[in-house]
Specification:
CATH class of chain C: Alpha Beta
Largest interface: A-B, 113 and 119 residues
Radius of gyration of chain C: 15 Å
Structural class of chain C: mainly beta
Chains: A alpha/beta, B alpha+beta, C mainly beta, D alpha+beta
Number of strands of chain C: 6
Mean pLDDT of chain C: 95
Low-confidence stretches of chain C: none
Oligomer: heterotetramer
Structural class of chain A: alpha/beta
Radius of gyration of chain A: 21 Å
Number of domains of chain C: 1
Mean pLDDT of chain A: 96
Strand order of the largest sheet of chain C: 3-4-5-6
CATH superfamily of chain C: Folate-binding superfamily
Strand content of chain A: 25-35%
Shape of chain C: globular
Chain lengths: ~425, ~1000, ~100, ~200
Amino acid sequence: MKKYSVFSLARNALDYHENWTEAWRSPEPKPEYDVIIVGGGGHGLATAYYLAKEHGITNVAVIEKGWLGGGNVARNTTIVRSNYQLEGNAFFYEKGMDLWRDLSQDLNYNVMFSPRGVINLAHNDAQVDAFQRRGNTMRLNGIDAEWMTVDQIKKKAPLLNTENMRYPVYGGLCQPKGGTARHDAVAWGYARAADDRGVDMIQNCEVTGMRIENGKILGVETTKGFIGAKKVGVAVAGHSSQVFQMAGMRLPIETHLLQAMVSEPVKPALDTVITSGAAHCYISQSDKGELVFGGDIDFYNSYAQRGNYPIIEHVVTAMCELFPAFSRLRLMRTWGGVMDMSMDGTPIIDKTPIDSLYINAGWCYGGFKATPASGWCFAHTIAQDQPHDLSSEMRLNRFETGHTLDEKGVGSTPNMH
Amino acid sequence: MSRSYRTPEGGRIDRSKLLNFTFDGKAYTGFQGDTLASALLANGVKLIARSFKYHRPRGIMSAGPEEPCGMIQLREGNRTEPNIRATQVELFDGLQASSQNRWPSVKWDINSINNLFNRMLPAGFYYKTFMWPKAMWMTYEEVIRHAAGMGRSADLPDPDRYEHMHAYCDVLVAGGGPAGLMAAKSAAESGARVILVDEHPELGGHLRGRKSKVGAKDAMDWVAGVRAELEAMEDVTILSRTTVASYYDHNMLVLNEHTGDHLPTAEGWTPRQRNWKVWAKQVVLATGSIERPLVFGNNDVPGVMLTNAIQTYANQYGVTPGNNAVIFTNNDSAYEAVLDMHDAGIRVAAVVDNRKVETAATATVRERGIPVFHNHVVFNVNGNKHGVKSVEVMALNEAGDHVAGSIIKLECDVLGMSGGWTPTVHLFSQSRGKLKWNEELTTFVPSESFQQERSAGACNATWGLNGCLKEGAKAGAEAAKAAGFVGAKAASAPKSDDHGMGDIRAMWRVPQPPHTHLKRFVDFQDDVATSDVELAVREGYTSIEHAKRYTTLGMGTDQGKTSNVNGLAIVSEELDKPIPEVGHTTFRPPYTAVTMGAITGTERGHHFSPIRRSPLHDWHLNAGATMVPAGMWMRAQYYQHPGEGMWDAIYRETLNVRNNVGLFDVSPLGKIDVQGPDAAEFLNRCYINGFGKLAVGKCRYGVMLREDGMIFDDGTTSRFSENHFMMTTTTAKAGPVMQHLEYLLDVEWPELNVHVVSVTEEWCGMAVAGPNSRELLSRITDADVSDEAIPFMGVTEVDICGVPGRIYRISFSGELAYEVGVPSDWGTHVWSQLMEKGADMGVAPYGTEAMGIMRIEKGHVVGAELNGRTTADDLGFGPMTSSKKAFIGQHAIGKPAFLETDRKQLTGLKSVDGKTKIPRGAQIVADPAGRIPMEQLGEVTANCYSPSMKEFIGLAIVKNGRERKGEKLWAYSPLTNEKCQVELVSPHMYDPEGEKVRG
Amino acid sequence: MLIKCPWCGDRALQEFSYQGDATVQRPAEPAEPTDAKWDDEWYQFVYLRDDPKGWHDELWQHNLGCRKHFKARRNTVTHEIADTGPMNEELKGGDK
Amino acid sequence: MVDLTERVSALAAIYETGTFGATVDGGPSVAFSERRPLSIVHVAGKPDDKAFSDGVKTACGCDLPTTPGDIATSGDLSLVWLAPERWLAVCPNRGSGVLEAAFRDACGDSGAIIDVSHGRTVIRLSGANARTVLMKGAPLDFHKKVFTPGRAAQSAISQCGTLITCPAEDTFDVYVFRAFGQHMWEWLTDAAGEFGYSVETPAT
């Protein structure tokens, strides 16, 4: 791999950049791999990278039906945080934060991880209680958390409305080391680094079936033919139900659609990430200057990657309530992604009842920030054939046993998580 | 400098109405009917912006919404707006605009240094660098953020008014050009309800900028005639200055109407913008087309324009963007423009046409003595921030892939380019219509429709006027027919001229001489040049989506209206793959950016969410209550007396209940009337405890579970007769519980004969609580209120203060207490009577804070304990759970996790030293000095100072909490650096035996 | 979206609330009440879904209209609605 | 005893008669008033249960309207279709519990009757631009040929569930839960501002 650096950039500038090589190869699939990862999104690519890097398993293929990083890693609101209440989530996401901090250097690809702080606004006393409870848990778990008064929040986000609003701001829970990252770069960086370690990235190749004999998976049928594998890990986000149906499994998952949007780019106007549960909105500003924001899912099952207007209206309304000055900015582009909403709002990283078939699914709204930790733990689960300690509560059978991890506490209504 | 670029006459402007405006502080004038762009051009202002990345000088390129370069900051103060396309701003008197993305000025912009280093800044350069030293990224980022970003946001709340409108129609026509007008006319004549939408103030589409004839008439006279005809019809709505922004499922479209943007300020009741949500049975898309730039060296110099833009400025605005033009084209459409320019007094130095063969159009130009260079290209523009100085022209080789021969230098001050036309298929594509590549026309055209729509005219790649009129008429009739107007006929289209585009010679990148590296821009706004697209492909970003994201091609505020086709064609050439295989990126709503305020409409400030007011709302306000939102409701938090602090008031209110009598407004509690022969059975299935045997005249506390076994809600339910109950819910869950009951009756148990009706609003509820409550009650009703007549958990219907009401003997405070319900319109009357009749005994209202303290003292559970992760057993309701009947959630109770012994259970807390406050939101730990990460045994769910018990108390859910009574642990809040040693006690801390409530 | 309430007719999406998969069947209760019994049948009912890509029979409530629940056969890829109907009627259309 | 007709409206604190909004040629084109006091009873039952449908007829003098969105009238009483098994009976105040009792007595055990007279605020809009005001708020088709006198529809205005009826040409009644009454009044009158509007004294 040709190292990226300011020097290589300067050297190549002299040649009008005509000597850069491809970031990853586009090989034809081999007949068999040690591990096949189905799904070339952020999680699949990260898994392949950590399989190679941490477990020395390099005879790996990532099979992607479209283009690498074309799923939710291409269409999220870029927020990175680990401000979770439940233990089963907290340490997992905090591992993610550790990985995020060094990710650009580790991958030799600038993913622009920007720990500019994530503030959850509390709009009433009950929320102050709940957020302080969460903040205290975070601190006792060793995760950074600060309580911010309204004045402190105002200082960090001067354009935020805190008083002249229907639900005034009472304060906020800040995770100072949370922030944003450049979403596409995460996928590309992992792909390039995995490629460098020998992983084959097979794009435009759709998995059409799973070959399972005597309860063990032997490989996958694809649009490029059968590809054998000793182990198969599936990380296909919004298409989990479909892919596992090929293995005869029904999942505690529904596929829903989440829209996000950006304003036209403006000069810096918001230097942190603001989220408001009461207003159903989260917002940050990209380095390019666009306000990036989103809210609730569309509530009905969908595989469409395109939503409808009521939610757009709702999210924009919430955003303008939080930032009345942004009312004059213009909404430039909206889009949708499909997400696998699990029945308790928490992901699943686990073995399956089928030998050598592994599942990584159910990411709900939270897949992007989890990318490194998810890849890390899933790689471990596949390599060691047992869950990693950090994801040991993200088991598939937790619904059956009652050990659900329900941060929001809304129960088995996936569209409410 | 001050010479005018205005033609002596002509144009569709009102020369009698002179308008003053400023740009970058300098005063200029224009006319009514100008856009800011035409007015600036008329004043000879060429440089108006700096580009996104390299801060190159930019001017105006187009005359419409596709403008990628000419963006400005409009208005000032709290009405300022960034990134406004000067081509879309209607000039008004007093308009203030300024350039953006420059410092200190658009002429001397410090960041234009980026252009010198542009070789260091290829596509995606930031992915390759800024990684060292690691800690520096945030510093680099700050510099990058300030360099990026174009215009600036206002920093004050938006003062303008925005509204919404909802409408249904048979046929919506998007676009008021020739095709759209004929479509609207045909559909309307059939009797269909028609909405015709056009983004410009004037209908006519491209006709506005041309000198076409329709029949014998000047085209714009014909437009006016059709408009008048349509306006006279009852069921036609014409919305001009309105953009069809988005096309959603089932023919739901969003329109953005600019009701006040053309005014100095939209004042009073006039909304600035209005968003329409329209459900159309059928849609005709007549959205026209956009001219494509050609991709050659330095094609971004101010003064390089789309050919039709020059034509439009000349014809519509009487403005000549230059005196001496060169036109560079690959198709016939530019020739008509050349003639118009010539008519307007612009000298046309030459037409450079990359096609080898002369067409009929060529002759029309030659007749005027204008030289035409065939098989030649403009490969470079010489110029700077002051504009174009000259262009360099070379011949093409036989294959057309290289330039050959010698350089011809042509002096000029404006260059028109025409790379063919791109149908505006955005809405078609948003509607899920499939696009097909047409090699002959070198563009994507609509093929299969998905929704109830059809395309007509230029957006369907029908170029000639005659064709557009006919196709529009036919589409309108078809749409009306499909909407049920079976007799619809295509209105007859007047014969008109029919210039097309002729054959087009695609040339996605204009070749340049060997060893030259001129910047050839593809996406002007985001500074994406051919070299960037080539680099992306070279580096393996070969999917069109990868190429777009890596280079940011088409991701600017114009969303690639002029750049997308050129971009994907270059990717296709680089990959040596046909364009259809490369495909196109997704067209996302909206078509042009829409002001957020317009999307928000009226739902701002106190209308963000409706305020729900109790019947006693005004009483609370008059009594000086501090009101606090509780969901949509506003509730009285406490009633502060003069000289009192907040907590003084709260403790006073609490003690007044404990020692005397207090009143609390419980109207927001959810109330659901449950009636029918199966009502008792239904309640039995909903609650964990039994309701079948509840006696008439009694009420009972009940707990509901979800299907997954967690607690859903709680409340008391009263029985008024065999088949008539009233359920109460928590305030927060009133809606969800109602929905849950309706679901069960509609879906799971339709066989049950039960009707549920929300009666929350019918009743004003008042808690009368305290040792003197019975005495007070006896003063407002003649009914017997003795313990025998209304025992604990009894309910009775009586007259209260002369109105029919209900008295429930229930207590949330733990005191002898009642809840009085009267129909809402009489609520204030009864409450006032209670206040008056109890004056001598010191009755006082209490708010949610005092209520909160008393519930903690009694260990009643609320939202923090009912957090969706607690089971009935966790909170101590295990013994209530019936095993004699089936109920929702019963089976889930059997899950293994529910039977584990270390579940978190409800417990009371007392501060061990009696002086230290139990911190809010604290965690329960064994030793706060322990190591992080620290085991957390539980969490504090509520905390307060109990003025009755004179100590700090709280509630918590703690692992195996019931077994741990007497244990001393710590409530620890590292967030606030507070800790308190606590003893775990029964949650029933005040009057544990419940003697008072039964008193 | 424009959804046809079986009673009120075509109405805008914002009047409705989505209520989940209409094909899951609540397990029958035993004739005689027993102690809580959590088994595979209940697990499947509460947690597992087919989550089809394509035609989906689902529940909606016209909660800002007549408040009735009804069934809809909707395509989860295209959002087309082939049919809607009261709970006791069979849905038609789609390619189910 | 208080006079049982002396009921305090949810709009009491803000109700002010007069002319408001923009000054327009020809004067205000929307008139507002609160309809009050009213007797309102929620009637539920199975229309094919003869005891119930006969009872309703006895109680109010008209047949149950079974076509969605229809309103049956008898004298000063309207019976509005709400849902397949639910109706709202509305008439000028007949005194506390009187209308409810009439239905209860007539229907006996069949059907579920509940008085909601105090639970609704009813705002009347009339005039040439009344429709346009409603179009700003509700996603319904208010076209003259569609939303005709004698029709009703439930929908939402400004996030509040509403029942909108059209008792006469260019006249509409907007029913909302009482607690939303003030919000709805403010919202509707604000939406009518551009047309100019008058507020008349309350009447049934």
